């Protein structure tokens, strides 16, 4: 056997150069999970087979089966690293910049159902920040329809979660609306229907003029006119600031 | 505590006018001392200077006439009014000198109020604003052009709206409240709000952080700032799309209205909106995404997105 470089066998050297994804086998779930945890906590252990950058996909599901379906979808992927919890977890996929949203959507399409995914991208050494971002994005997404979310789609809510004094002011502003269920329902429906009055009234099974009246009351209580996109964003973010429960993600 | 300026002046000044009417020895010193004491009290009770002027005028007329009727010394009575007025007014002006600058520099004088509302002024010379505020209560101008009002933001807000109305024209006020020891932070805040108001092209008015919560929170959150920069970069390369976003935002998301503003065909705007979504990943048809796009454009114009 030919030996090169401090008497390492040539085959070993060639393997290190040519196959960068030389991770523990997919059957070794525990080792791979440890590796995912190490990476997500921001420690790059210099493991030979790691990619330069990853998409961090935080996910949660309304049921344990839903979460299991996500894990099943990546079980045979030798490149995917998984840190799983009961109803949620993280999937790390090697990924080039700007490809992460597509990658997450692909995964989501294969799973479907009541699953929420938040995706962020980072070079390997910045994965802790990407994890924190994905976690906050998922918290916000969990209050919306199932699907794939990234920072830009929940940006306003995200900055408010990160600025507690702003969140406090907004939560105080929306408090009188939250205290009146019919107003809260009207506002939520109007937001969920992207500002479409007719659709919001249908969703609530109320007359359109009833909805208009309730939205006017919301305006009187908050000073924000729901028909204005900027004000609707403020109202929507205020609802997030008022209540944004934690999501079941592993530590 | 409410102070009845007219009654206070009458009670305190009666003895002084009597002494002057009799042209008693040392009435001038006594007048100065009394006016100084009463002036400080009125200032600390935050009695508006305009109210004091009215009270002073009527008190002077009443006491002078009474003393003249009793055969008082006319020359001394004429002089006493001037001495009292000058000393009284100096109490209102003395505080102005350097208090605002001292507070901004981090010094908190003993006689400082517990908290202040800092006001930034744009679109009008500061002197005019100062005198408009002074008619309504104490105001402390700083050399930086900011004003300090020794009241809470909730009180300062209607006051600022009133003054702005009186001044008329294109005037912007931004305000923020902080405890006396931290007014420098309030100044930073109003400067930040004012920069945003200016670059976002908001109409003349009175603004607080509440009106700019989202924008200022974005600026303070590095991840969000970077992301917004990435969102908007492909848009900025295409002025027509930028114009479309802004027109749609101004029309509250109403496409028919935006079409009229832009002098384009309905199908043209639909195509542009599709392009915007392809480039940014945000849908301008969704009001919240539209607001985010508008903010991204505005912040990029302030160079806040790096």
From TrEMBL, chain A:
Transmembrane segments: none annotated. Pfam families: HTH_30. It comes from the Bacteria. InterPro entries: CdaR-like_regulators, Homeodomain-like_sf, PucR_C-HTH_dom, PucR_C-HTH_sf. Residues 183-241 form the PucR C-terminal helix-turn-helix domain. This is PucR C-terminal helix-turn-helix domain-containing protein.
From TrEMBL, chain B:
Residues 241-298 form the PucR C-terminal helix-turn-helix domain. Pfam families: HTH_30 (PF13556). This is PucR C-terminal helix-turn-helix domain-containing protein. It comes from Lentzea flava.
